[in-house]
């Protein structure tokens, strides 16, 4: 590595983590609420996926109180079902949760917070964001006017590519734009995160020069 930086990685602890898969955390801007995905026992419906024999994904939340995370519970409202739901992004104001559901190849949905706690039934993002192929991740700018998402739809550079789409004046989403070969590669490029400054994009890739598998990259 040309410019290494020392960092300490700590496990968040057994209050959040379980013996099952716990992943895809998103956190509110004030760091008061953590939302994550888990395949732990006790998910909605209690069923297991035939593909791997594990419990279906559900979305959980934990709140920061007195400097500690509370015991997670299923997110309020009607977000979870007996099938897969995964948390993939949270709007900067904390009022819109983006959810991945494993249907139609894998699509992006959104749920809106009604008041302080309850969340609405997830609705599929409109426009041409979703396709018959897989759209596993998304990030939204602070003003809510631009989305960055990944997709393995035809016409990309190969594998998952990262796209950008702007909201039109009528509130609908415009035409998705592939971010091109500076960012996308013939391999998978995924998990975009646009910084609040709207100028810095973080993403994962296994097509750029990596240390093995997916590495995290940034571009301005």
Helix/strand-derived category reads mainly beta
The domain count comes to 2
End-to-end distance, in Å?
Answer: 20 Å
Instruction: Please tell me the overall pLDDT.
Output: 92
Could you explain the architecture of this structure?
- The relative contact order is 0.10.
- The chain has 2 domains: 1-124, no CATH class; 142-220, no CATH class.
- The protein is 0% helix and 37% strand.
- The strands form 4 sheets. Strands 1, 2, 3, 4 and 5 form a 5-stranded antiparallel sheet that branches. Strands 6, 7, 8, 9 and 10 form a 5-stranded antiparallel sheet that branches.
- It is built from no helices and 17 strands.
- The chain is mainly β and 220 residues long.
- Strand 8 and strand 9 (118-119) form a beta hairpin.
Features:
single chain, five-stranded antiparallel β-sheet, 17 strands, mainly beta
């Amino acid at each position: 590595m040309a410019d290494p930086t020392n960092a300490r990685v700590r496990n968040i602890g057994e209050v959040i983590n379980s013996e099952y898969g716990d992943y895809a955390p998103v956190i509110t801007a004030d760091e008061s609420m953590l939302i994550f995905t888990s395949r732990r026992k006790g998910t909605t419906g209690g069923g297991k996926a035939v593909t791997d024999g594990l419990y279906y994904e559900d979305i959980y939340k934990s709140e920061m109180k007195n400097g500690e995370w509370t015991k997670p519970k299923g997110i309020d409202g009607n977000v979870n079902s007996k099938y897969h739901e995964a948390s993939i992004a949270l709007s900067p104001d904390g009022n819109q949760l983006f959810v991945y559901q494993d249907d139609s190849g894998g699509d992006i949905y959104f749920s809106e917070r009604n008041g302080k706690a309850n969340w609405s039934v997830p609705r599929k993002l409109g426009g041409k964001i979703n396709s018959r192929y897989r759209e596993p991740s998304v990030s939204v700018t602070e003003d809510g006017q631009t989305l960055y998402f990944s997709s393995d739809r035809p016409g990309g550079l190969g594998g998952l590519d990262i796209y950008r789409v702007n909201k039109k004046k009528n509130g609908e989403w415009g035409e998705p734009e592939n971010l091109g070969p500076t960012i996308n590669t013939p391999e998978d490029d995924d998990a975009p995160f646009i910084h609040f400054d709207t100028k810095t994009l973080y993403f994962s890739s296994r097509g750029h020069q990596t240390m093995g598998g997916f590495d995290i990259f940034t571009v301005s």
